[in-house]
Each structure stands twice: as C-alpha cells, then as structure tokens.
Amino acid sequence: MSSTELRPDSVDRTMSPMAQIAQARSRRRAAMVSMLTRWPALVAAAAVGIFVVGVSYRLSAGGAPAQLYYLTFWAGVLLALLPGAWLAVTATDRHRRGFALAMVGLVTFVPKYLRNPFAPSYHDEYAHWYEALQVLSRGRLFQGNALIPIVEYFPGTAALTAAVTRLTGLSPWCSGELIILVAHLLALLGVFVLVEAHLRSARAGAIAALIYALNPSEMYFDTQYAYEGIAVAFFVWVLALASLAARARGTRRFTLTVAALLCAGGAVVTHHLTTVFLLGVLSFLASVGTVRAWRRARRSRAHVCDSCRTQLTHEPGPDRGVLVWWAVLAGTVVMAGCWLVFVAWPTVSYLSPYFGGSLRQLAAMTAKKSSSGRVLLAASVQPLWERGMTALVPLIAGLFSLKALLMLRKERGVWPFDTLALMAFGLLYFPSVLFLFAPSGAEGARRSWAFSFVGLALIGAYLLRRFPDWGRPRVPARWRTPMALVVLTVLLIGGVGGGLNDPYRFPGPFRWGTDTNSASAEARTVGRQLAAEAGPVRVVADQYTALQLIAYADLDVAAPSQDFPAWALVQSGVDPSRELAGMLYGSRFNYLVVDVRMAEQAAFNGTNYGSGDPLVGRVTPMDYLDRLDRVPWASRIISTQHLRVYRLNLPLLGQPMRGGQ
Amino acid sequence: MSTAGADRARRAVDPGHLTLCLVGFVGLAVALSVAPTPVPVRALVVLPALVLVAGGSAAALVLGRRDRARGAAIDAVAAADGADTATDGDGDGERPDALLRPVLTVLFGLLALLASTLLLAVLRVPLSTRAILLSTAGLTLVLLLAARGRTVLPRRGAAAEPVPLPSRSSVRAGLGVTAAVLLLVAAVAGAIAIQPTTVDRYTQLSLDNPGVVRGEPLTVAAGRRVLLRWTLSSYGYPLTRADPTVDVTVGGVTPVAVIARQSSPGSAATVGTGPVDRLAGTVDFVAPNTEGLYTTRLAITPNAAPVTDRTEIVVTMQVTR
Predict the structure, then answer these.
(1) Does an H or E element contain B292, and which?
(2) Most CB atoms closer than 10 Å: which of A128, A659, B6, B29?
(3) What is the pLDDT of residues A483-514, one digit of tens each?
C-alpha cells in the first residue's frame, strides 16, 4: 500500500457522506497500523515493553500486590509482542516477515531470561548447569547427575554448552542461554516453514508460528536452560524438513530427507521425551499416508471417476512423500533404538512411572470422587482474570478446532495426508488437558503441549488464513482487527497462565518450598563449607536445599523414595528404623542438612522430600528438628541462622545419653 | 531500481576467491581462539565464523545452488501483488529460499557444533578448547569444500557463476538489524539493572575438629580436658572487635574450668558469597567424671549488629574410663 493511499484526506468524493466517513476512518486506521508496524516503532515498542517487564519483576521482588505486577507484566509483554505479531501476519516481504517472527521469538524469550539472567533458578536448570560444569571440568560427556539422573544419558545440551563455552570463553550459563535463545528462534521459524509448506501460504506460516508462540510451554518452560528447549527445535525441524522433502523431487528430496534425519539425531541425543513424541508423530504420519495410499489404490482399481482424480491433483507424485515419512521414521527408530540400548537404557525405568501412574490416577479419579484430586491453580496468587483466561484457552482452541474440522470435512480429499495427520496430532491437546487433574499426569500433560501445539498451530493457521470468509454470519470489517487482538491476548495470557506457577514466573521474597524462591546464599555457603571440610560426601537434604548443595558444592544428595525413606530422619519424631539406618550407613549417607524454615512454613509445592513425603502440605514440627540435637547418632557440625549440618553416627542409634539436655 | 535490476548492477566476486576468503575466515577464527583474545571478540567472531560457515555450507549442500535471478523476480512479483504464496522449498526446487537458507544455516551450524563435540566423545578425546576448536574447524572446512564443490564448480564445462557481493540495500538492512539488536540489548540490560539486589546477612559457625567432622567419635577419658575448635564467619556484615559470647554445656551442665580463646576478626576473600569476616577460636574444658554419651553444646553469640543471633554446634561426646 502506498503512502498516498493511506492519506486520510484522499477520500473518494463521489461516495455518499457516510461511506466517505467510513472510508476515511478505515484509512486513518490503516495509516496508524502502518506507522506502528514500521521498524523503528516496532523495535522501540519491543524495547519499552521489555523494560516494563523488568519493572514488573522489580515490583514482584519487592513484594508488591500480585494484581499490580501481573498487570504491569502483561502490559509490557503485549506492548512488545503485538506490533511484531501484527507485522508477521500482514507483511508481504519475506525478510520483513522473518524478522518480525524473530522479534516475536525474542520477546517471548526475554521474560524467562530476565527472571534469572545470571544463574540457574529452575529445577531442571540446576541439573543441566551442573552437568555442563561437570563436563567442562572433567572433559568428558556422560557425567553422573544426582538432580536428574537421566540427564547423563542425553548429552546434547551439555555438549553444545561445552563447545560454546570453549570456543567463546563465555561462562557456561551465558553459553547455555545463548543456545536456548537460538533454539527458541529456530523452533518458531521452523513452525513457519512447516506450515507454509503444508498450506502453501507464508501468511498461514506466520499465523501458525504465532499460535505456537502462545503455547503454555513457550514463554517459560521451553526457554529455561534445559534439554527440552533445544530438542523441541530439532523436533519441529524434523517435521518441517520432512514436509519439504515430501513435496520436493530428485536430489532435493534426498538431501532434505537426510537433513531431517540429522535433526532427528540431534533430538535423540538431547532429550528422551522429545524422541518419544517424534517417534509417535512420525509413526502416525507414515501410517496415515500408507492407509490413504492403500485406500486410493483400491478405489482406483474400482475405476474412480475422472473428476475425482482431478480433484486429487494437489498431490504431485503417486507416493506424495509417504516414502519420505517412512524413511525418516525408520532412521529415527534405528537411531533412538541404538541410543536406548547402548547408551540410555535407564530411561525406560525413569519414564515408565509417569505413563502408568498417571493413567491409574486418572482412572481412579474417574471411578470415585477422590479427595486427592488436584485443584487446578490452587494456592496461587494468580489474579482471577488470568485464571479465567487460562480456563478459556481449551474452550477457544476447541471451538476453533471444531470449526476447522467442519471446514475440512468438505475438502479433506484436497489436502495431503501429512497435513491432515499433523492436524489430527494437534487434537492430542484436548485429551491431555484431562491429565492435569491426575497428580503424576499433570507434568506429562503440560510437557506434551510443546509438541501437540505444532498440530494445533496448523489447524489455527488453516482456519485463520481464510478468516473472515468462514461463511455466515460475516464479521464486520471494523471488528476484525480488535477481535483478532482480543483473541490473541486471551490465548497469550491464558496460555502462559496455564504453564508454570507464580514463583517460577516472578521473582519474589524468600518463600519456603519453591525451587526458585527458596534458593538462599546460606545454603550455598553451607554446602561449600561442608565440601571444603569433608570433601564430596553423600548427604540427606530436603528437595530445595538439595539443588544448592549439588549445583554449587558438588555434594551427592540422596533421592528418597518409598524403598529408601530418608525423610524419616527429619519428618518423624522418632529414631529411624534399623533398616533405614543400615541403608544410610551402608550407602555412606553420613551427613544430614536441615533447613529450619520447613518448620516455619509449609512447602509451597506441598512436599519437602518428594512425592513420598509423609508430611505433605504440612509444616514440619520444630520439635522433630530440635530432637536431632538430643540424639547420640547426630552431631551438629555447621550451623547458621536457618541451616544445620549434622554428621551422622548411626551405629550409636538407640544408645542412652547421660545428663540433662 | 527493482531488486532484479539492482542485482544485475551488483559487483560480483570470483567463486574461487570467495572460497579462499571463507577458508581464511575459518583460519582467522581458529587463530583468534588459540590466541589470548578477549571474550567479546571470540563470542562475536570465532563462534559465528565457525557456526555460520559450517551451517551455510551444509545448507548449500541441502538446498543446492541459489537461483538468484529467478528468486528475485518471484519476490518482486509477490511483493507487488501483496501475495503470500512465494514459498520456500516447493516442488520444483527453484523458488527462492529467501528465509529458509539463512535459518537452515543457523540450524545446521548448531548441528555441526553438536556433531563435532559428540565425535570427540566417541573418540574418547577430552573436550579441551583445542580439541573442540580443531574438530569444529575441521568439520567446517569439510562442509565448506563439499558445498563449494557442489554449488560453485561449473556444470558440464560451463564457466563458474560469479557470486555477487552484498548490495547497498542489504548492507543498510544489516546495519538496521544491528541497531535494532543493540537497542533491544540495551532494553534488556536496563531491565536487569533496575532489579533490586538483596544482601543476605547471616552467621555461620563451624566445628574445626577434622576428626569429628569426618565421623570419628569425640572420645575423651573421664576428667580429662577437651578442646573444641570453631570458626565464626559473618556474611554480609563485618564482625566487630568486641568478643562474642561463648557458652558451653555438657549434658545440660556448664563444665568446669572453661577457657575460651579467639583470634581477632579478619576479612577473607571468597568467591560468590560477598564480603566475609572470620573469627577463629577454641574452647577448652574438663570432661565429666562419669563415663557415657553426653550432648556437648557450644553456643556463640556475635556482638556485632545487625546479626546477634545465637548460633550453636552440638556434638555427641563419648566419655570413657
């Protein structure tokens, strides 16, 4: 659109006065939008928005009311995001569109980066940062990891971090953040390329990338320094490159297939869950393609009419890429199988409780109205309006998907099998929402959204690129932009609200029982002091102090379970059983670290020692902690205002003490 | 001037010379990485040089030769029509890869970095700077030569196509992107700068009897003297010269002949914990006359504002005959 066309005074005088006013208004609006989406304005808006997000963090860290810092946060994010989003959808130039999408990617990365720019804060970040430090200090991959044992077997993140650290001299943390930023941008651009290939529309690609950016994992979970953030980019690019290969011919098809396989290899060595989802979606795509080809062959044998044949010419080759999908699937199966068998066999025992456990819990909750059912967003300071939008997200996604399915019903023969199969994969989002109500399924449900949203993004792009030609009732032109902005805002706020909880999203005063806001300098110095005096010893500690002890002091912290109830040292008013004492002594868990704040506040996350904690949701009685100073089998050797370190001498268990206390 | 016209008017460079330039660029990156170069230079030159050359070469291997003239023409038509159908990687493989190629460059660069590090792990070579540099640079050169071989070498005896240098508009766009990035980085830096900094103030008391810390029981003959060594560290506040209060009880009773000594407080440099003052001391007392296990409680109360909390260590003492 030229600047002359945009001038509000250039109104057609032959029109009726009302029409002239409407036209002038429309042009003024267009001129305003054009001005706001020019580069300097767009970048300036993003910069101001980022700064406002910083202000919201300052407010939350200072203990301001939740309403205030949430509103400030969203004002900043929307100011930074909406102009870029608008340009990404409306631009006609590929470079402008690409740059706008990169801006969207940057803006969705920044809130997490500002949350903890200099050191790990999330649980998984501690594990990966520790792994990278171990790899760098020992010069070898596959280092044991007490926080997430499985990280050892998926060295992609640590390998990339080590390489960037060595080549640049940046700190491991900075290197990791740089890699995550690049992967985050790659994932968004990958969705763009994927959907553009399927719907043959760059605008649809941009819409899909935006929808993907709204997924609950995108702004916080997948931008943390952890393996999924990197592997998701590989996942998206396997699908994008295989889709391009399926639509290419000759050498280009071959090279694109090889490229897709290389990305699959990247996913396999980086993250187990991504590999599982990748295998699932590839199997589904290849199966759907084969079934469709078989049905078509059967129909053609039955002499399908020529007109039907003409309708299907959207797909150029006879196989239309089925072989590409099978090749990528076969390659991924071989790579994942070899990796599992020869390198990462413990993954099986690590993942199986999540699948089986969550299904059992969900079935139990369906059978009886159990009191153990989860209350979503419980114990949260999240404002009501954000919770409301979170509840609206599945509803809006459901309505959109339903509309898309109704539209697809009339033209499903037109679209290639892989497009339809990817859309069907996106529908996985809806059953996964149910799993939020099962304690051990909630994590898996949330983790599936980074993958299923690829399909949902395709559905959304298919639908929205044809908006407003959806049939009756037609939306008036002047309502389209505000409507689109409102829906985008609701999906963005609701999506992020459905992801991580308040302590993960916002800095704040010390709060016992969170991975993020329970971190203290005291725990770090105590850990270092213990390591300096006793070496890299084995320790029993609560799940929050454990993060600091492992990451900063390289101590080996026990992972309590029903078979190894190490919590009994602290969460009980009696001596540990002989059996537990034997296990602790035999495994050389000779030290105990206690944070007395667990006797002041109930853990925000509910537990102090993982899912088997006998005092779930309750404060540990102070007497349980103080009795450790009166038993013969524990000597307090380091002490601060809040932390106590005991040297255990369990052979003295049951011996009588002399004198008063 | 149209984009196609601009391209025609653009100056071109011989592909052989360009290959040599890229090899030289990789060599420069290796030299900078080996030499004691400042971190910003390494981050802004070494990493991009290796990653982008490796990734760009891999992208060229996958996507093949650039068809600049056709790409520019299609872009121009698409822009003029306001159409959104100029797709990358379509069936005929000759549409413009305007967005796909740079994005794949970064993706394959990341994969090359990962592959070269994993290769070292397979070969059981320690992941030192030199090893990672050599493996990445080696892979980069292999990819570069393969890509130049595929995309630059003349086909069927035809002359090699000259590679156009970046146009003025590309340079302007690059400068614009750089300015945008600098502005956004400044915004992020500003947002970080306004975050409140909190200093944790606390005191740490530790027992300095190495045997007890490592698990040996504190065993003493009845009626003999016992010596406990301790260190008091203050974090986030200085210890004053005023002596801290020292209390000892054994089995709930104050022992006889207690002698407490302490050194003057001194600053100790530590990494990542803020300012630290330290004060070392000992406490010496007579053990009970009756054998058995006793709880020995040593409490230190620093007389230094703002922290005056009593801190304790509690040791099980075994009194023998």
Answers:
(1) strand B292-301
(2) A128
(3) 888 999 999 999 998 888 899 999 999 999 99
* Ordered DSSP codes for A337-396: HHHHHHT-TTHHHHHHHHHHHHHHHHHHHHHS--TT---TTTT----HHHHHHHHHHHHH
**Chain A residue at shortest CA distance from B183:** A47
pLDDT value of position B18:
79
Amino acid letter, residue A74: W
Q: Which of B90, B188, B204 sits opposite A525 (nearest CB)?
A: B204
- Contact in structure between A243 and A229 (CB atoms under 8 Å): no
Residue A429: closest CA among A469, A406, A461, A395: A395
Q: How many CB pairs under 8 A join A and B?
A: 323
Q: Find chain B residues with C-beta within 8 A of A461's C-beta.
A: none
Q: Rounded CA gap, A627 and A625, in Å? A: 5
Distance from CA of B273 to the nearest CA of A (A): 7
Mean pLDDT of A326-339: 97
A133, with CB counted inside 10 A (0-12, 13-18, 19+), is buried
> ipTM strictly over 0.90?
no
- B47, B87, B128 member nearest A168 (Cβ): B47
Taking CB atoms and an 8 Å cutoff, what residues of chain A touch B62? 255-256, 258-259
Residues of chain B with pLDDT below 50 are 1-7, 81-95
Q: Inter-chain contact A93–B183, Cβ cutoff 8 Å? A: no
pLDDT of A305 strictly over 70: no
Residue B51 identity: V
User: Which residues on neighbouring strands pair with residue B202, listed in sequence order?
Assistant: B235
What is the value of pTM for the model shown? 0.87
Closest to B8 in 3D by CA, of B96, B72, B75: B72
Q: Do B273 and A525 touch (CB under 8 A)?
A: yes
Q: Which among B3, B95, B204 is the top mutation candidate for probing chain A, defined by the most A β-carbons within 10 Å of its own β-carbon?
A: B204
Reduced to 3 states (helix: H, G, I; strand: E, B; else coil), residue B279 is strand
